[in-house]
Amino acid sequence: MILEQYYTKCLAQGTYYIASNGEAAIIDPLREVQPYIDRAAKDGVQIKYIFLTHFHADFVSGHVDLADKTGATIVIGPNAVTSYAFAKAEHLQTFSIGDISLQLLHTPGHTMESSCYLLRDEDGKEQAIFTGDTLFIGDVGRPDLAVKSDLSTEDLAGHLFDSLRNEIMPLPDHITVYPAHGAGSACGKNMSKETSDSLGNQKKTNYALNPDLTKEDFIKEVTTGIAPPPAYFPKNVWMNKGVNSSIDEVISRGNTPLKLEAFKALANDPEFLVLDVRSPQEYTAGAVPGSLFIGLDGQFAPWVGSLIQDIDQKIILVTPQGREEETVTRLARVGYDNAQGYLTGGFETWANTGSEVSTIKNVTAQEFIDGLEDESIENPIDARKPGEYEAGHLCSVPLHTLDSVHEEVNQLDADKTYHIYCGGGYRSVIYASIAQANGINNVVNVEGGYAAIKKTDLKNQKIVATSSCSL
């Protein structure tokens, strides 16, 4: 038996490849499917099944493309409705893959079709469970994404409690838990950075599996402090229920080189968005005026989904040379299929022809603290998430989370200068790029963000947690 986890850090997402005696199965595939096909060919096996744990909200799965290319059967749990052919599996139904098997356990709660898959080896012994968004390492799936007229968040949380108690907790402690997501995903509140664990250890350490937790307390716990879901989540669910453009078509269109004049013409068209995916340092040193920065070497796909409000937006790209196709692929993972090409030669082509360039000033963390101290910095912004802010922040700096930038940017004063920081210097540049595109030209990025600020000579600046500034 072969069992391999394909973990994509950008999405904090786990896909699983399982093979035995000439047959293979894929659980929760990403949009790009060729790596699974190549791996099966290398192992000399045929992909027989494609299992979905649920209709994912945070990425577009490649299950339909993979089925078309391999002839594999798509399997989804009870309550699933789609516009493509699939096998609607029943609770406890078993599927053989070579000499091993996967048994579907229907575990509604995160969504109503949510299911886990229990792996038994050649001897019929339970070895692992693929839990999707039902059970994470250290957490459980949020219960607010599948709310309908007849189902409230509390209803779903109640279903989740029952699913965990009835289907997962009775399983033996030695089996390995393989979830669909880890730390950084918006599908839970406080997931571990670990991407697998024994079920026995999760029973000891995961609050949701505490046997003394009442159903009422569980519902209260999992429904409290949930951040609003990114706006693209419903569209990704809809896409995962339907047939989309093939990934090959999407990449072919987006991976089109554009000469400077063609790129400029599209950049001046209000229907097009210029997306710059270079590093924060490169972007602040010089960029196409009005472009949006979201760097590839960060939480690229989730921020694209959160901040590019129209999932059908036409996009042209400024990328590091050699990473054009990667950029298009990673956009497609979250359903942004309308990339129309990239600037040939990258930003250097723009800069070397004398085209107008926008810049963002950078200051060190110590320069920022000194400016707060002498009051030369009057409008600081903390662009982190509420949980980060509550864990520790500067008393003199208000929170303007990046998630809310589109609503808040219109409240900024174009005549003022704003100094922006985040956790490490990535999100602050995103915030600054959006502010500039909305006419707030005097924005300054604090290099290294809050991590660097904590290491400075703070002088009279006070770091506090929660609301203790008022004490």
From TrEMBL:
Q: What InterPro entries does the database record attribute to this sequence? A: Metallo-B-lactamas, Mito_Persulfide_Diox, POD-like_MBL-fold, Rhodanese-like_dom, Rhodanese-like_dom_sf, RibonucZ/Hydroxyglut_hydro
UniProt xrefs under PROSITE patterns: RHODANESE_3
Keywords on record:
Hydrolase, Metal-binding
Q: Name one GO molecular function term.
A: metal ion binding
| All copies of domain Rhodanese, residue ranges | 268-462
Asked whether the keyword Protein transport is assigned, the reply is no
EC number(s): the record gives 3.1.2.6
Its domain of life reads Bacteria
BP terms from Gene Ontology: glutathione metabolic process; hydrogen sulfide metabolic process
SUPFAM superfamilies from the entry?
Answer: Metallo-hydrolase/oxidoreductase, Rhodanese/Cell cycle control phosphatase
- Residue intervals passing through the bilayer: none
Pfam families from the entry? Lactamase_B, Rhodanese
* Protein name listed in UniProt: Metallo beta lactamase superfamily protein
**Which organism's genome codes for this protein?**
Nonlabens dokdonensis (strain DSM 17205 / KCTC 12402 / DSW-6)
